[in-house]
């Protein structure tokens, strides 16, 4: 049997592409913060929304959430909640009052103010894959532990693609850097290789506060400037079922008190750490998320908070998590309904269970990305580069995902669906008549360049032309694009003094021992 | 560089799967006609719908459509339309009166009445790829002209997959059978290898009427039974811009007069045979489609008709058609709005420009299939097996597409979003508490088997387990599934006498010379 997956028969096909592109690795759409005007897909009626709300409130009132963080327990006590050991029960009136303080939309401003992003409303933002411990690319050809060099390359992709709006956590965990100083090296790389909104892991005081300091240095901000509005964010997960751990809540409290943004994302896998029913898993997720958001609103009314969803299901056969499933899509849509009910911006993800950047990877990721669009999601985490349920980061997958994300952004451009007289184009139809062709007429020529989406890794040539250029399958085309981008990558501008100050900060904090590693 | 696309390192991995499945090639969902309860995505407001309607009416009133078919011209004249040579202009009042006769929903009943399908309303149906002249599979490893054997295998897939509801045109054109008798051999194969609703090409009197006779023989139907309700259908394309040719209209008239269904699908490629603006291309498509449907409603008020869309855009670089683009998705959604405006069932497609069953193929196809769902499409043509803009049929792509289609069907099952007390599952959450796991509890165990979608070609194992089983990429897994299905395929039951009668009919019609080949 011929190996249909083995692509290269001839070497060619790049000269033309290089000529077409000039010196840029690819032609891409400009930076923009897309507005999703589609009416969300809402599987639940008002009764269903009320059922989940009531369920979440009953969890908070009757069962309670475990907060392992002492400071949080003291605050809940002060607020009048019922605290028994680590168990916190809270009344729905108080919860709803607290959620009422939360903004429906807020901005985060990174060191380059042109890359400011709006979280909430009808905006939709996309970020890189975050936190996989492993890396896979076609050149290595196997799964390996992540390194700082790989992490830096994925940060370069994060910066390069205009359709990626923010830098998430480490795009791959650089296991070759000691955990005590890893955050210093990676955030240094992130600050110098990107100028987009950055993230801090809530894994102990030092890690969060070091990132805040480095964001301040990179942006040339005083403490007052920094705390005046969001410049970065953290994202935490609850320990489902029903628990928030010590460092995650600690990191959020540090961010909230200094005016920075927090995303609270339970990971409720139906049939494992959540009920086997999808609406039950969503109800648990909602209760866990809003218990923490209520705390943050009590501490700082109006604190910028986002409710996250990471509700999926297990594989019935293996117990492994599955992603981009029909159940995942519905859970995401339902969470969108709940986020709007509570008036909170929402986070979802671009995810798959596939192990390599192939067909399965793309249908699962497409399902998850389209469910983000359908649900009115504002922040799409892991949108580019994710494989193996988040255990692998892949640069080829990153490039391929960016094609899908760009198409989603293009899909949201209102001019595609304009219906003015020149769009309906009766005069052009009259002019061409039944025997002509539209290509040559002025109506077409005036609009041609901007009329249609233009891909950078999709190959739209016919089979013969594609084959003559080497017959390259998508994953390998993406690999070449990845290499081209890295080869031509230019760091975003940063003043020499700022860079020195960042370096000095890293050196000093390393000399101090970095951060504890007892998490 | 390691070749990441080359999959096979070890041979194993099938024993477990075979054990799991028993003797069936795969475990799949049962036959069902899914109901799409999602509110359609509607990019246009009422003004936009009115603008396209008005544009389409102005085309019909001011520009006219060319009908090359003499019989149609005579009917239009009789109906009071303005006929100048082949140009037919028709007033909007008459058009809307005719469309008012068309049913919003109707059934088609094939030889196996259990495979009856409902076209229209909220139903969504999926059919196989139709009419590619070429074939590609991983064993052959290149693009080749289609053959009867390949066509028969694709018909076996069409029958095998419960998520495929009807048999479209030839799933690949069997170029090894002479065009004069090709329809006889392929329809014989279709009648014996499938028991699903069948299609006739409108390519001259003989081809349409031979299919009708064979459908009658296969179903044991008298002419009166046959004509009493739809048992098969034809699908035609206009010759955009602004033209309907002779045989397509002829075939439709033959179907309509004998109570059979017709689908009218203009192919309006924006920037080529239609305006460069997407709403202009849709307007032209609507005008072309409803001019023919109005004719059929005049001939037989209440005739079962479907309005099709095949509006996409060209590649700005090569002029080649592009599919599954953002523009394609919006055009499909807008056509859905127009179909509901006119009260007609709607057809769209599952399409891509990719040449091989890889990542690009699946994101483009996912885009097109999700836009079918979002648009409220009732009939999804080419939903499985399509490559290279419809020039290649691929069995691997067929299998991969069926996974996506099954997920869409599962997505539409209402139990996923149920919100009764046992779904919200407060008692289960109480029972498990903050330190437990949901897997072992009764609430989970009672629901586990049916709770989640179960894939047949997606591999949800972790990387290590996947690698140990050979590290097989999706396209090759699909190839193996294809081979398994063909090896174990059993023809649907058909009486010996019926089969003999079909054979005799084919032999007689071949002896008579089949059909003219001057199309």
From TrEMBL, chains A, B:
Which residue ranges does UniProt annotate as crossing the membrane?
Answer: none
Q: What is the lineage of its organism?
A: Bacteria, Pseudomonadati, Pseudomonadota, Alphaproteobacteria, Rhodobacterales
* Keyword hit for Transferase: yes
Q: Name one GO molecular function term.
A: methyltransferase activity
Pfam families this protein is in?
MTTB
Q: What is this protein called?
A: Methyltransferase
The record's similarity note reads: Belongs to the trimethylamine methyltransferase family.
Q: Does the keyword NAD apply?
A: no
Top-level EC class, please?
Answer: transferase
A Gene Ontology biological process noted in the UniProt record is:
methanogenesis
Q: Which organism is it from?
A: Yoonia maricola
Q: Which UniProt keywords apply?
A: Methyltransferase, Transferase
């Amino acid at each position: 049997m011929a190996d249909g997956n083995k692509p290269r028969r001839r070497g060619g096909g790049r000269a033309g592409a290089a000529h077409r592109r000039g010196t840029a690795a690819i032609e891409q759409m400009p930076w923009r913060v897309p507005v999703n005007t589609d009416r969300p897909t809402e599987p639940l009626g008002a009764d269903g929304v009320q059922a989940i709300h009531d369920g979440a409130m009953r969890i908070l009132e009757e069962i309670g959430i475990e907060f392992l963080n002492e400071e949080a327990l003291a605050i809940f006590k002060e607020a009048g909640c019922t605290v028994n050991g680590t168990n916190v029960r809270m009344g729905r009136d108080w919860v709803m009052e607290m959620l009422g303080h939360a903004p429906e939309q807020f901005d985060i401003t990174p060191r380059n103010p042109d890359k400011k992003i709006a979280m909430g409303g009808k905006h939709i933002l996309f970020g890189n894959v975050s936190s996989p411990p492993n890396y896979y690319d076609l050149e290595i050809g196997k799964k390996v532990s992540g390194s700082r060099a790989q992490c830096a390359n994925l940060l370069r992709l994060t910066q390069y693609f205009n359709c990626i709006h923010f830098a998430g956590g480490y795009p791959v965990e650089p296991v070759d850097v000691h955990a005590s100083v890893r955050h210093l090296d990676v955030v240094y790389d992130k600050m110098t290789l990107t100028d987009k909104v950055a993230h801090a892991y809530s894994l102990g005081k030092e890690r969060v506060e070091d990132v805040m300091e480095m964001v301040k240095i990179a942006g040339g901000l005083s403490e007052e400037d920094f705390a005046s509005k969001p410049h970065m964010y953290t994202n935490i997960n609850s320990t489902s079922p029903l628990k928030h751990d010590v460092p995650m809540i600690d990191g959020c409290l540090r961010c909230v008190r200094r005016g920075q943004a927090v995303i609270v994302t339970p990971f409720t896998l139906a049939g494992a750490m959540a009920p086997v029913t999808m609406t039950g898993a969503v109800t648990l997720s909602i209760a866990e998320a809003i218990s923490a958001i209520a705390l943050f609103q009590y501490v700082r009314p109006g604190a910028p908070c986002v409710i996250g969803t990471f509700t999926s299901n297990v594989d019935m056969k293996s117990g492994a998590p599955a992603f981009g499933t029909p159940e995942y899509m519905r859970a995401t849509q339902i969470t969108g309904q709940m986020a709007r009910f509570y008036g909170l911006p929402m986070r979802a993800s671009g995810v798959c269970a596939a192990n390599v950047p192939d067909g399965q990877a793309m249908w699962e990721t497409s399902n998850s990305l389209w469910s983000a669009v359908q649900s009115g999601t504002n922040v799409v985490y892991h949108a580019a580069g994710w494989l193996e349920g988040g255990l692998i980061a892949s640069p080829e997958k990153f490039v391929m995902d960016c094609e899908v994300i760009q198409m989603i952004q293009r899909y949201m451009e209102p001019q595609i669906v304009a219906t003015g007289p020149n769009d309906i184009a009766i005069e052009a139809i009259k002019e061409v008549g039944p025997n002509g062709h539209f290509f040559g007429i002025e109506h077409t020529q005036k609009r041609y360049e901007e009329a249609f989406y233009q891909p950078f890794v999709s190959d739209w040539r016919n089979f013969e032309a594609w084959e003559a250029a080497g017959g390259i399958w998508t994953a390998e085309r993406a690999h070449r694009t990845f290499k081209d981008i890295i080869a031509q990558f230019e760091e975003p501008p940063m003043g020499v003094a700022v860079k020195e100050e960042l370096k000095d900060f890293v050196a000093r904090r390393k000399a101090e021992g970095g951060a504890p590693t007892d998490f």
